[in-house]
């Protein structure tokens, strides 16, 4: 085996869709499904441990922990067949105890697991197509019972044992709720399902008989012994206002960072969604359930055996995201309480883990609380990029969940996280750790890693960049643009070089140690070495049968390690493959090499990691570790060779410690020192310094206020203490008097009590004597009865002994008779056996003689055949020698001809290949030219649009700055105000109500106009129908005229024979006379039709004009509505500011009044008792000046009057606008319609 080992140090990822996917092993130790198996996390000490799964495991499907927290049951998905394994958690590390399988049970996925209360039995529910419930005695690997679950729409969601009964099991799913009891080797159903079947998503045992169930329609059902006891509909919960306001504020920030349009993923979902109880968990006071995305409700039991909602707990708003969506849109799939019920942990559909500390007392509870992350926000989709920094212990990852995260692999913490509008395909860290490159679908972005944020510094026009990398010196970076590698400068951001030559998609780009060369691989099996000074290829190795996915360089940059679709690890040097290591039926997806060059790590499509020494082994000499549940997409070794970092399609990240075979950490020749500096924006520093100054001023003001308040409190407390002392002395005296009175009463009661005791003692003695005499007589009587019964029992015993003796004698006789009888039979059978053995001996002798004769005959025949075939062999050998000579001559001729053919074929193939290559190059160049032209046109258009947008934004910025200056000036004026403005606020509110009423009237008029339009449209439809009928009549008349002409032509043929002519004319008259009358009537009605057509055209013209007018009115109404809304918003803001200032003014007035009272008291004290002390504080001197206070009040009254005048002017200006506040003129459609009819 190899000397190198890897041990998992940290796991950041959570597997979704696991039944019982999170549980507590101890008070602060959480177990959850991560990667291909399970992870343990300590909430205080923050360490991780990993429990690996079986070989070729594709992830965990279900988990269950016994009540004693000693055993863990795991259901895994594997390539060959699903596995059900039980682990012992008390061992260190946890060891595999049993693997359960049975011939009676087909190999299917186990979707739900549960241990019995004593941990001896294990219930397992399998998934479709045939859902079954199995009961195991797992320690003996024995299947006790199996029952098939029959339902309309089968789908098992959960299985559990009763908390007190090992034989009672509950199973719920889509369309069924069943209780089973194990007895006599079978599982029997003990409940009858009544009512309509529900989709039961979850359940929990509240007691030995009570079960709470949650459905997909938001209903809670409480069953007692299988019968429905209580039912409740849970309403859909909307997130609290704090989360909504926070996300709206983030929306404005994000629009300036990243361009793009938001997806309509969550639009309107809050209103249209229905409640759904996705998870339930019981605890001592009641139960917890999740009824809506992002919320957990706590229910507690009341005195009336009913459960009442006590608290809401919401998922926190994601502080890292810039996208305006709620993290609360995650469905909660699992809820778990700690053993002491102090901590609540949940898992969600977006691979996140949250925890909540339960309040220790009822008075600490809040109506709505918030969760916090168990460790950090995790990736919820496939990880597409990973890169390690040289100067800092950080690693950057990006994912299809549109996020970029920066982790610290030394402290196992998340340092930075940010979500964007597009999916991130690749990420690269600058060697200093202060910048990074991220490839998106539309651009490549150069991002500054600030202290608490990521700032987009520069955009590059590289679409769908799937690979990028910084040079080791940090002065250059490479980005893949289609089939071209573009080299940019990190100082000037200019495109210094373009490396062209790849025909397939480029999957990896690596730099040499001195940054003079660059290495790349693609999907067409090409590995190239590029010289950056010339921009040309120096080395190439092409294998068209292999699709390369990753490459890694040796420390000397002369050896390339490549992996791809051909299931081998290749060692390439000097344009050729020197060595290949097979993967043994697995595809290698990623490769990494240590900086020392003696360790090679490979990631597979099954999610496993393999470590091996360099030079590469010839046989299967490597260590394999089970880690991820999906293919490993990226892996890298840190600069000090102490950590291996892997990322996978399952969204999980593993930090591995690289150790020697004995578990010791590898030592380097030089210890590596990491940098600690960080970036921060100048604006951030200025803001923080401003806030610090404001806070310092505020602290000083608060100190002065506190000192003043403390003095007031001291004085009031001193007065209260005096009053309390007086009351206390009075109460003491009254209590002493009461005590003396009570003491006298106590002495009297004690004397009476002693007299009563003596009387009771005498009575008790007499009663005791009487009872003793009675009991003695009863004892004598009972003793006599006992002696009589004893004599009877002795007699009975003697009789039974005699009967037993007789029975024993009869038994002995029968046994002797039976032994004699069976001995005779044995003798007879032994004689028969001896005779049969003699017959067998005789038959064996005869058989051996026959066998000998047959063998002799066969030997003779074999010898004859042997002689015959030897003669034939000699003859054939002679003929073969002759033929060989002839064949040798022919072979020589053939070889010469084949050589000539091969040479000519090779020449032809070389010419064809050259022709194909040239044609391919020409086509690719033509495509590149066309693509570049289109890209240039698109980019010029986008640049022009963005320049316009930037110019508009600058203008808006200037206007906003002016507005800000005006607002700052007004705020300073408002801060000086003291007295109330409630009357003005009420007037403003009345105006707002009037505006809202007018808006409602406008909406009503709009609806009336829409109704009129629909009526006109119906009239148009009616006229269209009449037109259709008239056209049909016209066609009918034309057909009738044609027939009449034909009949008339036939009558003209009888012009010589008048009788026939007469008969024909009569037929024509009878046939067509009525139709002709109809035609004449129609000729009369033509004038009416023309009049009708004129009126119709007139109506259509009026309708078009009305439509245009309606559209214009709608536009005017919309503009007025937006204007009113903007004014309302500004007015509400002013009202809020005024209210805040009002409260401040009230407090200040109160303080001033109290200060005035104090000064008056002090002056009175100074007049009565002269003192030598002088007032030191300037605040007290100011308070004594009543004139100054009166001046301030007069100034404030003038300011209030000025503001009232301004409000009235604004109100008059709003009333003067007819479009905003006046009613629109009604359209008199009925009158115009009557005119058209006349």
Walk me through this protein's architecture.
- The structure is a single chain.
- Helix 4 (982-1052) packs antiparallel against helix 6 (1086-1168).
- It is built from ten helices and 57 strands.
- With 1238 residues, the protein is of the alpha+beta class.
- Residues 244-272, 322-328, 1168-1184 and 1216-1238 have low confidence and may be disordered.
- Judged by helices, strands and strand pairing, the structural class is alpha+beta
Biggest sheet features? 5 strands, mixed
Kindly report the average pLDDT value: 82
Rg over CA atoms: 49 Å
Distance between the termini: 106 Å
Number of helices: 10
Beta-strand content estimate: 25-35%
From the spread of the alpha carbons, the general shape counts as extended
**Lateral arrangement of strands in the main beta sheet:** 22-23-24-25-29
According to DSSP, the number of beta strands is 57
Low-confidence stretches: 244-272, 322-328, 1168-1184, 1216-1238
**What level of helicity do the residues show?**
40-55%
What's the short story on this structure?
Keywords: Coiled coil, Repeat, WD repeat. This protein is an alpha+beta fold and about 1250 residues long. It contains ten helices and 57 strands.
Secondary structure topology:
Layout: E1 5-12, E2 22-26, E3 29-34, E4 37-42, E5 48-51, E6 57-65, E7 71-78, E8 83-88, E9 95-100, E10 110-115, E11 121-126, E12 132-137, E13 142-148, E14 156-161, E15 168-173, E16 176-183, E17 186-189, E18 200-205, E19 210-215, E20 219-224, E21 227-233, H1 241-257, H2 269-272, E22 279-283, E23 286-290, E24 295-301, E25 307-314, E26 332-337, E27 343-348, E28 353-357, E29 368-370, E30 372-373, E31 383-388, E32 394-399, E33 403-408, E34 413-419, E35 426-429, E36 435-439, E37 444-449, E38 454-460, E39 468-470, E40 476-481, E41 484-489, E42 495-500, E43 506-511, E44 517-522, E45 526-531, E46 536-542, E47 548-553, E48 560-564, E49 568-573, E50 576-582, E51 588-593, E52 599-604, E53 608-613, E54 623-626, E55 632-637, E56 643-648, E57 653-659, H3 682-975, H4 982-1052, H5 1058-1084, H6 1086-1168, H7 1178-1184, H8 1186-1215, H9 1218-1221, H10 1229-1237
Parallel strand pairs: 25-29
Antiparallel strand pairs: 1-57, 2-3, 3-4, 4-5, 6-7, 7-8, 8-9, 10-11, 11-12, 12-13, 14-15, 15-16, 16-17, 18-19, 19-20, 20-21, 22-23, 23-24, 24-25, 26-27, 27-28, 28-30, 31-32, 32-33, 33-34, 35-36, 36-37, 37-38, 39-40, 40-41, 41-42, 43-44, 44-45, 45-46, 47-48, 48-49, 49-50, 51-52, 52-53, 53-54, ...
Helix pairs in contact: 4-5, 4-6
Domain EML-like second beta-propeller: 384-658
Region (Disordered): 241-271
Biased composition (Basic and acidic residues): 241-251
């Amino acid at each position: 085996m190899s000397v190198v080992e890897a041990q998992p140090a940290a796991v950041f990822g959570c597997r979704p869709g696991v039944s019982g996917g999170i549980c507590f092993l101890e008070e602060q130790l959480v177990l959850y499904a991560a990667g291909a198996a399970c992870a343990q996390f300590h909430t205080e000490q923050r360490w991780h441990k990993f429990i690996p799964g079986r070989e070729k495991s594709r992830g965990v499907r279900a988990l269950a922990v016994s009540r004693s927290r000693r055993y863990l049951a795991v259901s895994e998905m594997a390539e060959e067949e699903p596995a059900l394994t039980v682990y012992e958690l008390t061992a260190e590390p946890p060891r595999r105890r049993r693997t359960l399988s049975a011939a009676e049970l087909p190999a299917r996925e186990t979707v739900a697991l549960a241990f019995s209360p004593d941990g001896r039995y294990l219930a397992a529910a399998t998934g479709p197509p045939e859902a079954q419930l199995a009961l195991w005695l797992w320690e003996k690997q024995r299947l006790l019972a199996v029952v098939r679950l029959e339902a309309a729409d089968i789908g098992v969601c959960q299985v559990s044992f009763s908390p007190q009964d090992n034989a009672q099991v509950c199973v719920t799913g889509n369309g069924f709720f069943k209780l089973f009891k194990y007895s006599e080797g079978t599982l029997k159903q003990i409940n009858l399902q009544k009512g309509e079947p529900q989709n039961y998503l979850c359940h929990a045992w509240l007691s030995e008989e009570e079960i709470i169930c949650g459905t997909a329609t938001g209903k809670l059902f409480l069953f007692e012994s299988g019968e429905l006891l209580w039912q409740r509909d849970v309403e859909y919960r909307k997130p609290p206002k704090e989360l909504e306001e926070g996300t709206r504020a983030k929306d404005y920030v994000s629009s300036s960072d990243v361009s793009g349009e938001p997806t309509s993923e969550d639009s309107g979902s809050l209103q249209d969604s229905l409640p759904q109880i996705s998870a339930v968990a019981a605890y001592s006071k009641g139960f917890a359930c999740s009824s809506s995305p992002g919320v957990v409700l706590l229910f507690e039991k009341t005195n009336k055996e009913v459960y009442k909602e006590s608290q809401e707990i919401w998922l926190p708003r994601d502080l890292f995201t810039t996208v305006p969506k709620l993290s609360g849109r995650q469905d909660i799939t699992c809820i778990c309480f700690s053993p002491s019920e102090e901590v609540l942990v949940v898992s969600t559909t977006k691979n996140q883990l949250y925890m909540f500390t339960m309040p220790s007392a009822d008075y600490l509870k809040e109506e709505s609380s918030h969760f916090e992350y168990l460790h950090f926000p995790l990736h919820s989709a496939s990880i597409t990029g990973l890169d390690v920094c040289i100067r800092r212990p950080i690693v950057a990852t990006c994912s299809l969940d549109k996020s970029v995260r920066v982790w610290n692999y030394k402290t196992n913490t998340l340092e930075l996280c940010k979500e964007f509008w597009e999916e991130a395909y690749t990420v690269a860290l600058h060697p200093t750790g202060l910048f990074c490159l991220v490839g998106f679908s539309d651009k490549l972005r150069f991002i500054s890693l600030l202290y608490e944020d990521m700032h987009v510094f520069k955009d590059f026009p590289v679409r769908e960049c799937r690979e990028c990398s910084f040079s080791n010196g940090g002065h250059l970076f490479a980005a893949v643009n289609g089939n071209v590698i573009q080299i940019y400068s990190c100082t000037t951001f200019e495109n210094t070089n373009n490396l062209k030559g790849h025909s397939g998609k480029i999957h990896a780009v690596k730099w040499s140690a001195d940054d003079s060369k660059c290495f790349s691989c693609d999907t067409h099996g090409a590995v190239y070495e590029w010289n950056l000074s010339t921009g040309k290829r120096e080395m190439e190795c092409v294998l068209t049968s292999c699709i390369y996915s990753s490459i890694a360089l040796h420390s000397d940059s002369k050896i390339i390690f490549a992996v791809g679709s051909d299931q081998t690890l290749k060692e390439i040097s000097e344009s050729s493959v020197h060595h290949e290591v097979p993967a043994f039926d697995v595809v290698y997806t990623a490769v990494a090499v240590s900086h020392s060059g003696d360790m090679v790590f490979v990631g597979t499509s099954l999610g496993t990691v393999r470590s091996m020494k360099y030079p590469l082994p010839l046989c299967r000499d490597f260590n394999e570790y089970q880690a991820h549940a999906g293919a490993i997409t990226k892996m890298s070794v840190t600069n000090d060779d102490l950590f291996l970092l892997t990322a996978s399609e399952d969204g999980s990240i593993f930090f591995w410690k690289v150790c020697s075979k004995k578990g010791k950490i590898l030592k380097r020749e030089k210890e590596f020192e990491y940098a600690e500096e960080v970036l921060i924006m100048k604006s951030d520093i200025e803001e923080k310094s401003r806030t610090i100054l404001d806070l310092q001023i505020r602290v000083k003001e608060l100190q002065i206020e506190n000192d003043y308040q403390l003095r007031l409190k001291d004085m009031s407390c001193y007065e209260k203490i005096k009053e309390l002392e007086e009351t206390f002395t009075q109460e003491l005296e009254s209590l002493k008097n009461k005590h003396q009175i009570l003491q006298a009463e106590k002495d009297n009661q004690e004397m009476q009590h002693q007299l009563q005791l003596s009387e009771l003692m005498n009575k008790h003695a007499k009663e005791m004597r009487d009872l003793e005499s009675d009991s003695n007589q009863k004892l004598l009587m009972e003793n006599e009865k006992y002696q009589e019964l004893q004599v009877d029992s002795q007699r009975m015993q003697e009789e039974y002994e005699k009967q037993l003796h007789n029975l024993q004698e009869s038994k002995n006789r029968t046994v002797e008779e039976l032994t004699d009888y069976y001995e005779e039979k044995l003798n007879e059978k032994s004689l028969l056996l001896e005779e049969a053995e003699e017959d067998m001996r005789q038959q064996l002798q005869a058989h051996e003689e026959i066998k000998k004769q047959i063998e002799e005959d066969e030997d003779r025949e074999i010898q004859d055949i042997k002689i015959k075939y030897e003669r034939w062999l000699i003859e054939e050998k002679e003929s073969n020698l002759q033929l060989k000579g002839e064949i040798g001559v022919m072979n020589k001729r053939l070889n010469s001809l084949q050589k000539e053919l091969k040479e000519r074929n090779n020449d032809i193939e070389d010419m064809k290949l050259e022709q194909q290559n040239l044609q391919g190059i020409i086509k690719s160049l033509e495509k590149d030219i066309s693509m570049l032209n289109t890209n240039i046109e698109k980019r010029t258009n986008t640049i022009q649009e963005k320049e316009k947008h930037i110019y508009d934004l600058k203008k808006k910025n200037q206007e906003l700055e002016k507005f800000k200056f005006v607002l700052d000036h007004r705020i300073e004026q408002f801060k000086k105000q003291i007295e109330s403005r409630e009357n003005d606020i009420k007037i403003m509110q009345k105006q707002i109500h009037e505006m809202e009423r007018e808006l409602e009237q406008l909406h009503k008029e709009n609806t009336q106009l829409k109704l009129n339009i629909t009526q006109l449209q119906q009239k148009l439809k009616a006229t269209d129908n009449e037109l259709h009928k008239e056209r049909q009549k016209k066609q009918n008349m034309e057909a009738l005229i044609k027939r009449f002409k034909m009949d008339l032509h036939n009558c003209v043929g009888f012009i010589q024979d008048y009788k026939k002519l007469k008969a024909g004319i009569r037929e024509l008259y009878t046939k067509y006379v009525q139709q002709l009358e109809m035609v004449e009537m129609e000729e009369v009605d033509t004038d009416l039709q023309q009049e009708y057509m004129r009126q119709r055209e007139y109506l259509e013209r009026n309708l078009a004009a009305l439509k245009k007018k309606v559209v214009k009115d709608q536009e005017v109404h919309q503009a007025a509505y937006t204007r009113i809304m903007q004014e309302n918003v500004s007015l509400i803001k002013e009202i809020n500011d005024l209210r805040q200032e009002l409260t401040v003014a009230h407090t200040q007035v109160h303080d001033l009044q109290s200060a005035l009272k104090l000064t008056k008291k002090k002056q009175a004290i100074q007049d009565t008792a002269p003192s030598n002390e002088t007032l030191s504080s300037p605040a007290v001197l100011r308070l004594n000046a009543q004139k100054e206070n009166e001046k301030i009040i007069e100034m404030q009254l003038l300011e209030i009057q000025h503001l009232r005048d301004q409000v009235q002017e604004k109100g008059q200006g709003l009333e003067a606008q007819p479009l905003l506040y006046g009613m629109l003129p009604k359209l008199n459609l009925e009158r115009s319609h009557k005119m058209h009819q006349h």
